[in-house]
Specification:
heterodimer; A: 28 helices; B: alpha+beta; 4 helices; 3 strands; elongated
């Protein structure tokens, strides 16, 4: 069959008629033969012609049928031939790849690294950023806030929320929630559970029905009637053994009996809530416009855009600012799509990583392109012979592309394997604060992406060499032998590829360098406290058990005393918030002498602390004194301010003895607080965050209302050598005070710092790894190209040696061939790096995006590596023996 | 008077064409002429069925067409059997044998008409 096909194709070279011509010629021949036969039988020529024609029937219909069948036959045949040729190409590709295992393994490994890394990072990007939220019509759900002239803020007061819901023209439904931790008691075992108070409308916004039971009714969302609870899927499985009959059971939440009315599906938990109770706003709460603590979500009416919603919220906000000028000073609308708020800055962070990994892939492709070029030069004679035997240029290009496809898909399969390993490895070290990252894996879209990237890489690395190797002059190639003629032509191409690799590697290394400099800078920063040896834990009191401030204060003071008794403890204290920890809030402070108006307030973070807390954290008191047990209710109200706050409130003056109003009191009695000490600034929001103004009030003098702000929850801190013993001691101390109070959020300060830096470290580590891989690949590429040059120039080098060129001169010649494109690459890479550095901007600390130290260091490293990569080939060049080099061709 | 020419059974034409080409490649007219001569005109192969059958069989890959020189020095389209066609022919002949033996057994039996 193959032989026949070959014969047919040869004959077709002579005459390849169109189907119409073919049919006409065949029919005409048939008629002529028939007429001849009929005449021989004795018919007259005219009669013979008429008879022959008559036997065809309707001549035109007959021809039309044949033409149609002929066309069908041709289509089928072309498809067949294409498939046959493709199969042939694939077989040929496997054979020729097997024949050069060195080339094949290098190319496969290079591409697999590129594809694997790209796929792994894409799986993160897909899981965190690209995957839609598991909420019906998620694009219609927005977050609503109380904005101010400084920008949007996402906490809403109950009063404002109720007015928004009443006045809105753009929302189908507005719902509100606020996070709260609950002391859950099931079968007499207490546990602290993260949860939320939510109103009945909240569940209607998301339209996710409960898996079991129902959500809150409007009646249950009222004060006094709110003794019902909804469980998360996780809590239901963990504490109730996924009991389908759980609805109707009674549990104790913060000391009060609640009835379970439903279980939400696993998809319904934006912030990790495990338990919901009705918000049941009291009439007093509903009248309050100045306490911003609600998270408000809205479902847009169909067809309403976020911009329109913002305009409408602005309208209502202006009315509210007029109606409540003190509480809603400068209030503006704030609306943001839920998705944008949910993923936060993840697109930006992962985007930089994804861009970087694409650069690695590009370097890998350039490397393989280089390998293919070298291989193409060596195969030129083989290709010329094939062309001479009748294979068209297109046919040869197709053959080469098939070869590359086989290579790329092979690398793709290896790359997916690598990606799987990389994802598993990276998830272990990944920061916890990237939403949905833990769900990253190799699912359908990620696999499709890997295949697409593999195929796409062929376009980058394969097409140019394939066209290149068929562009040469056939006859000359055959005449000149294996050396080939287009080898010299494509030298510029090789140098260009080296330059491109260096430029790409520069971009990566500059990014990595800037992040490393940031990490070094952060490592040197004094956070304002000493984290080593400090164990912290959270303790919350239920309102039902500790309704009045005296009881709360008493319990925490008792706990403070117990903590001091723990064996091995060096210092102990409590604070409403420790650095890098949860809790706390901001209050407006007005110094004595200013009008008691909102615009005179300095926003400052409040910490309620016991005496000794500052010493436990080793936060220095730079002036004045710490609180003592004598600072009690009834004595002078005292406060300690941070250095930053002191400088802001009384620049250039001694703050000790000055007074401020805050947190409580009226215009006639602002309840002045006297500054008795100045504490060092603390980077409470994270080592990479600037310190903000903070002030400390003694627990014993805390405003009664403040216990509600912080939900009667404090963080305790103990300093000692043995953190395990301290932890056990802390639990025992809390048990002594009240066995019904759970201890949670136990962490050493070292752990808190590590966690707050995890994201930055993760990015730094990944980008550094990518930079190293890019550098290695670029070095391999340069080595390969220069090695190729030396091999090709053996003869020329031999002549030079014969003419007396010194080894140093030869080395210099080779070195220059590598360094010139490398330097050009550095020149080209600098603008690209500046672009990446600007994208990194928000992640940089203590170093500018155009940091000259990083740029110069990276450029020197690259040029150095390029020089090293040419060293081997250069040494080979000096050892060229002129006689053998000139003899063999 | 010559008996009426027999109508061809469905699919039989294909086998006859394959058989015709078993010896050597022929052009379309040659196939028709050979069939008529061999069967003493007992089979009438109409051009209206012969040529479409040739195109279809070409598509199926049983036969291959090549342009060559006819015995009279004219360019003509010659059909040749492919290996797939030869295999098909063998199968069809065996099937026809089984069929005709069976029919003969029935027709030659002593049962009353």
């Amino acid at each position: 069959m193959a032989k026949l096909e070959f014969g047919r194709r040869l004959r077709q070279l002579w005459w390849r008629p169109s189907v119409a011509d073919e049919v006409e010629a065949e029919v005409q021949f048939h008629l002529d033969m028939r007429i001849k036969e009929l005449i021989a039988r004795g018919l007259s020529p005219d009669a013979a012609r008429a008879e022959a024609m008559a036997r065809l029937g309707d001549g035109e219909a007959f021809r039309a049928t044949l033409r149609r069948l002929g066309r069908e036959r041709n289509t089928m045949r072309e498809r067949h031939e294409w498939l046959a040729e493709f199969g042939q190409d694939v077989r040929y590709a496997f054979r020729s790849l097997r024949q050069q295992p060195g080339f094949t393994l290098t190319a496969l490994a290079t591409l697999a690294i590129g594809i694997g890394a790209t796929t792994a990072i894409f799986s993160f990007l897909y899981s965190v950023v690209l995957r839609p939220l598991p909420i019906p019509e998620a694009d219609r759900i927005v977050v609503v806030g109380d904005g101010n002239p400084q920008g949007p803020a996402w906490s809403v007061s109950v009063g404002n929320y109720i007015d928004y819901a009443r006045e809105t023209r753009v929302f189908e439904r507005l719902g509100a929630t606020h996070f709260a931790n609950f002391n859950l008691n099931v079968d007499a075992s207490p546990e602290r559970v993260p949860g939320a108070r939510a109103d009945a409308a909240y569940f209607e916004v998301f339209r996710i029905p409960p898996a079991i039971g129902r959500t809150f009714s409007v009646e249950e969302d009222r004060p006094g009637a709110n003794r019902v609870a909804l469980l998360s899927d996780g809590l239901w499985r963990r504490r109730f053994g996924a009991d389908a009959g759980v609805v109707g059971r009674t549990i104790t939440i913060d000391g009060t009996a609640h009835q379970i009315i439903g279980v939400m599906p696993p998809t319904f938990s934006l912030g990790g809530e495990e338990l919901w109770v009705p918000a049941a706003f009291t009439p007093q709460q509903q009248a309050k416009h100045d306490e911003h603590f609600l998270e408000v979500y809205g479902r847009l009416k169909s067809g309403v855009t976020v911009r329109q919603a913002l305009a409408d919220q602005d309208r209502i906000a202006r009315q509210l600012a007029t109606a409540f000028p003190l509480d809603n000073h400068g209030l503006t609308g704030a609306v943001e799509p839920l998705f944008a708020q949910y993923v936060g800055n993840a697109p930006e962070r992962l985007g930089v990583l994804f861009g970087s990994v694409l650069v690695v892939l590009l370097i890998a492709c350039v490397n393989v392109a280089n390998l293919l070029l070298a291989r193409g030069a060596a195969r030129e004679r083989e290709l010329a012979v094939r062309a001479a035997l009748g294979a068209g240029r297109r046919r040869i290009v197709r053959q080469l592309i098939t070869e590359n496809l086989v290579l790329a898909l092979g690398a793709g399969i290896l790359g997916i394997g690598l990606a799987w390993v990389a994802i598993k490895a990276m998830l272990v070290t990944a920061p916890r604060n990237l939403p949905r990252l833990d769900q990253a894996g190799l699912d359908g879209w990620v696999l499709a992406f890997a295949v697409a990237v593999s195929l796409g890489s062929v376009l980058v690395f394969g097409l140019m060499p394939a066209i290149r190797s068929t562009a040469g002059d056939l006859a000359r190639t055959l005449r000149e032998g294996a050396k080939g003629s287009s080898a010299a032509v494509s030298d510029w191409l090789r140098r260009g590829l080296v330059a491109a690799e260096v430029a790409l590697a520069l971009v990566l290394l500059v990014g990595a360098g800037l992040l490393i400099r940031t990490a070094i800078h952060l490592g040197r920063i004094d956070p304002g406290f000493r984290p080593d040896g400090v164990v912290t834990a959270r303790v919350g009191l239920a309102q039902t058990a500790y309704p009045e401030w005296e009881q709360v204060t008493g319990a925490f003071e008792r706990l403070h005393r117990e903590l001091g008794q723990i064996p091995g403890v060096e210092a102990a204290g409590l604070s409403s918030q420790v650095p890098l920890g949860p809790g706390g809030g901001t209050n407006g402070l007005i110094r004595e002498g200013m009008a008691l108006a909102p615009e005179n307030a300095i926003g400052s973070r409040l910490r309620l602390v016991t005496p000794g807390y500052l010493g436990t954290m080793r936060i220095p008191i730079v002036r004045g004194r710490d609180f003592t047990d004598e600072d009690r209710r009834g004595t002078t109200r005292v406060m300690i301010v941070s250095k930053g706050l002191a400088e802001r409130a009384w620049p250039g003056q001694d703050p000790i003895g000055k007074r401020m109003a805050c947190c409580e009191g009226t215009e006639t009695d602002p309840m002045w607080k006297e500054v008795i000490g100045v504490a060092g600034d603390v980077r409470s929001g994270g080592i990479d965050q600037e310190a903000v103004p903070e002030f400390y009030l003694p627990v014993a003098q805390a405003p009664a209302e403040a216990w509600n702000w912080i939900q009667r929850t404090m963080t305790l801190a103990v300093r000692g050598r043995e953190s395990a013993a301290l932890t056990a001691g802390v639990r025992a101390a809390v048990r002594t005070v009240d066995p019904a109070v759970p201890v949670y959020g136990v962490a050493t300060m070292g752990e808190r710092i590590a966690q707050s830096m995890a994201q930055g470290r993760f990015n730094t580590r990944l980008l550094t790894t990518l930079g190293a891989v890019g550098l290695l690949l670029a070095a391999i590429g340069i080595y390969g190209v220069i090695g190729y040059f030396v091999a090709r120039q053996r003869r020329e080098l031999g002549i030079r040696v014969a003419l007396g060129a010194s080894a140093g001169r030869i080395r210099g010649l080779v070195l220059r061939q590598g360094l010139v494109p490398a330097l050009i690459g550095v020149g080209v890479g600098v603008p690209g790096s500046l672009l990446l550095a600007r994208l990194l901007g928000s992640q940089l600390r203590g170093v500018g995006p155009g940091d000259p130290v990083t740029f110069v260091t990276v450029a020197l490293v690259l040029v150095g590596v390029a020089a090293l990569a040419t060293l081997g080939p250069a040494r080979r060049a000096t050892r060229v023996d002129p006689t053998t080099a000139m003899r063999d061709d | 008077m010559a008996p009426q020419p027999t109508e061809l059974l469905q699919g039989t034409l294909d086998v006859l064409i394959l058989k015709t080409l078993a010896w050597a490649p022929r052009h379309g007219y040659g196939i028709a002429k050979w069939l008529e001569d061999t069967t003493d005109d007992a089979l009438v192969v109409e051009e209206g069925s012969l040529y479409p059958a040739l195109y279809r069989m070409e598509r199926k890959g049983w036969i291959e067409a090549e342009w060559g020189m006819s015995e009279l020095g004219r360019k003509a389209k010659f059909y040749a059997l492919t290996s797939a066609g030869r295999a098909h022919l063998k199968e069809e002949i065996a099937a026809w044998r089984r069929f005709s033996v069976a029919v003969t057994k029935v027709l030659g039996s002593n049962g009353r008409v």
